[in-house]
Amino acid sequence: MKSKDVALIVAAIVVGVIFSEVINKFVFAQSNRSQRVEVVPLISGFLPNPDSQYFNSSSIDLTQVIRIGNAQNISPFSPPPSTSN
Q: Using one digit for the tens of pLDDT, what is the confidence trace for 34-77?
């Protein structure tokens, strides 16, 4: 490339950048760039006590181990306990 070609390319880039900045100011820029947003209330760590109708001392405990029959092995994936006499 000759130095005239490089100078022409640089000049075209400069003119393009200036032109795009001018168009940008007219099309996209606004004088007021502030916007009001809704404020979220603060979340507290307080939890109320659960309803005593459903959560009370006489209700069914669903976390209990349920045994069917006379099985001694409460963990089905471990070997049964040895019964040596």
A: 788 899 999 888 888 888 887 777 777 778 877 777 767 667 67
Greater confidence (7 vs 63) lies with 7
Angle at 57 between CA 64 and CA 61, to 5 degrees: 15
Q: What is the dihedral of CA 55, 60, 65, 66, to 10 degrees?
A: -160
Residue at token pair 């390319």: 9
Q: How far apart are CA 56 and CA 49, in angstroms?
A: 11
Tokens 């459903």 sit at which residue?
A: 54
Full 3-state SS string of 22-59: HHHHHHCCCCCCCCCCCCCCCCCCCCCCCCCCCCCCCC
